[in-house]
Design brief:
Elements: H1 16-22, E1 35-37, H2 49-52, E2 58-60, E3 80-82, E4 102-104, E5 127-129, H3 141-148, E6 154-155, E7 158-159, H4 162-170, H5 172-195, H6 202-230, E8 245-246, E9 252-256, E10 260-266, E11 276-281, E12 284-289, E13 292-297, E14 308-311, E15 317-323, H7 325-344
Parallel strand pairs: 1-2, 2-3, 3-4, 4-5, 5-6
Antiparallel strand pairs: 6-7, 8-13, 9-10, 10-15, 11-12, 12-13, 14-15
Helix pairs in contact: 3-4, 3-5
């Protein structure tokens, strides 16, 4: 699923609506959310998440156009952060993520290798991925990282053994001079590097993201138009008899009692009542949920005007009670017969 947005400032915002949409598995609740995937959303800036989703353990932000790691320090329970394929240029602002165990920064633009030192106080960090960044090509890269971050066990998918760490420490003073030299050379060339006509630069990646967004938007509009024209839900047979349809693909149960049919529908807990419509007919019942149809055929005729629909408080259940016509007539007949017997006595 793609979030198509305009080129203005609001185009790349992390909105409450977007988070709730991605939190359908949690019934739309965001305060108790523990995992959320916001990949491929053209997001340019990380914002609001630490205020709205304080219980997050997994945050997936890969394949966006984020240039800076920020506004995540209050996520004390965050264990896995994926920022692969973005425009991040340095590691920063993660000191407060005390539970962080895995950080994926694959295919970004990190050339300031010394910025990994900001992760020193992330004592629970065990896995770090920097493959595809300029800093990962520096001579002495692996030795430097596993020395300044002794807590990690895996770097770029490679397991670190105690012997590797001992050897890296022995050569650290020599390696760090090489790292500084290569890093300064990289930072000195970075402006020229950005202007190169290549896919591997932040500007080009931004332009590509915008081009892809417009292409996806056009394709999606065409697909929607095609679906609207082709897909027409069939609710009745040619002879007029109703059909069973569950376009909404929502759980339900239809219980038959002596006097009533009782339909229970599990709708989203936070779904606005205005988005739900109930229509009881003599031989079928139809529920519209956000415009999608749930229609069920009834075995017996029911009273439309005596039927009731009730949404239970603090629950996602919608209960529709439909009294049977034949049962009602049968009860009246028994009463009349009983009264006649009394008169005869």
């Amino acid at each position: 699923m793609f979030l198509f947005v305009s080129t203005d400032e609001d185009m790349t915002s992390i909105t409450e609506e977007l988070i709730r949409k991605r939190a359908e598995h949690n019934e739309g609740q965001i305060s108790s959310l523990e995992e959320i995937a916001l990949h491929q959303q053209d997001i340019m800036k990380i914002d609001h998440i630490q205020q709205w989703c304080k219980n997050l353990k997994i945050l997936l932000l890969q394949s966006n156009i984020i240039s800076k790691i920020e506004n995540l320090n209050k996520l004390k329970k965050l264990e896995y952060l994926n920022l692969a394929i973005n425009n991040v240029e340095r590691i920063e602002n993660l000191e407060g993520c005390e539970s962080l165990r895995k950080l994926d920064l694959t295919l970004n633009f990190i050339g300031e290798l010394t910025s990994v030192e900001t992760l020193k106080n992330n004592y629970n960090l065990r896995e770090l991925y920097l493959t595809g960044n300029s800093c990962s090509k520096f001579e002495g890269y692996l030795e430097y990282v596993i020395t300044v971050l002794p807590q990690i066990n895996i770097l770029d998918g490679i397991q670190i053994f105690p012997s590797d760490r001992i050897l890296a420490k022995q050569n650290f003073s020599r390696n760090i001079l090489k790292i500084f030299q290569q890093q300064n050379e990289y930072l000195g060339k970075v402006l020229t590097f950005w202007k190169q006509t290549t896919e591997n630069s932040p500007e080009i990646r931004l332009a590509m993201a915008e081009q892809i967004r417009k292409s996806h938007e056009k394709i999606t509009i065409n697909m929607l138009d095609s679906k609207i024209s082709k897909r027409k839900i069939k609710l009745f047979k040619e002879d007029g008899c109703p059909l069973n349809v569950n376009e909404a693909k929502i759980p339900f149960s239809l219980e038959e009692q002596m006097e009533y049919f009782i339909l229970t529908v599990d709708i989203y807990k936070h779904l606005d009542t205005s988005l739900v419509d109930v229509d009881v007919q003599p031989w079928f019942v139809r529920v519209l949920i956000k415009g999608k149809v749930l229609q069920l055929v009834l075995k017996e005729e029911v009273y439309c005007d005596k039927s009731t629909a009730q949404r239970t408080i603090c629950s996602r259940r919608l209960v529709i009670t439909m009294p049977k016509v034949n049962n009602f007539k049968f009860r009246i007949k028994i009463k009349v017969i009983s009264e006649a017997r009394i008169l005869l006595l």
